């Protein structure tokens, strides 16, 4: 079975391909099939992921899986949320992982409540009009550190400390991160649903 991954992120594709391999499912990056990006006008991960999955299914005629993920900081009332990738731009920085981390550390200076969650929402559709999309949410609670630790991963990994492991995501090996990450958790749930309902 072929499924299009509604993302042009090669890192995300590699991560998900490895997880879906046991099902005998081939994940294909949407950028290898067509050009264009789905609109993501919504305020929630699930709505944006559904928009991306439907868009990819419509343009390819294949079942599609999309991921929308982000950082939800308690002190900011759950923000940046769906705007995580562009977080630093509101403070005059150019969009990049490095600038996102810099802006977050600046905005969190002197803040006592450092609780935050990283959330990954995967949505799967068999076709653009699928009335029963598969929805899998992975959520990991942690703390924002006061400085960067570790050199692995991407995004906010250097400042996202996971108390149950005692490390930031950037200090973990890829295998350890996968076992404890939001995307690892949502992927395992999605895998089980695809196996049960689509195969």
Automatic annotation (TrEMBL):
It catalyses: ITP + H2O = IMP + diphosphate + H(+); XTP + H2O = XMP + diphosphate + H(+); dITP + H2O = dIMP + diphosphate + H(+). Binds 1 Mg(2+) ion per subunit. Its EC number is 3.6.1.66. The active site is at residue 68. Mg(2+) binds at residues 40, 68. Keywords: Hydrolase, Magnesium, Metal-binding, Nucleotide metabolism, Nucleotide-binding. CDD domains: HAM1 (cd00515). Substrate binds at residues 7-12, 69, 154-157, 177, 182-183. Its cofactor is Mg(2+). Belongs to the HAM1 NTPase family. Pyrophosphatase that catalyzes the hydrolysis of nucleoside triphosphates to their monophosphate derivatives, with a high preference for the non-canonical purine nucleotides XTP (xanthosine triphosphate), dITP (deoxyinosine triphosphate) and ITP. Seems to function as a house-cleaning enzyme that removes non-canonical purine nucleotides from the nucleotide pool, thus preventing their incorporation into DNA/RNA and avoiding chromosomal lesions. This is dITP/XTP pyrophosphatase.
């Amino acid at each position: 079975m072929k499924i299009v991954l509604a993302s042009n992120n090669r890192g995300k594709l590699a991560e998900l391909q490895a997880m879906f391999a046991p099902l005998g499912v081939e994940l294909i990056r949407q950028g290898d099939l067509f050009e264009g990006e789905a609109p993501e006008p919504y305020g929630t991960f699930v709505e944006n992921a559904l928009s991306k999955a439907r868009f990819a299914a419509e343009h390819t005629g294949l079942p599609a899986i999309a991921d929308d993920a982000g950082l939800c900081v308690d002190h900011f009332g759950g923000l940046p949320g769906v705007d995580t990738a562009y977080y630093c731009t509101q403070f005059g920085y150019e969009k990049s992982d490095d600038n996102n981390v810099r802006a977050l550390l600046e905005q969190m200076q002197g803040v006592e409540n450092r609780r935050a969650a990283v959330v990954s929402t995967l949505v799967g559709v068999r076709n653009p009009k699928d009335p029963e999309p598969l929805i899998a949410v992975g959520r990991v609670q942690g703390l924002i550190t006061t400085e960067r630790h570790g050199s692995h991963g991407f995004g906010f990994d250097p400042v996202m400390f996971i108390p149950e492991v005692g490390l930031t995501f950037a200090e973990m090996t890829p295998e350890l991160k996968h076992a404890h990450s939001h995307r690892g958790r949502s992927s395992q749930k999605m895998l089980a649903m695809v196996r049960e309902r689509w195969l």
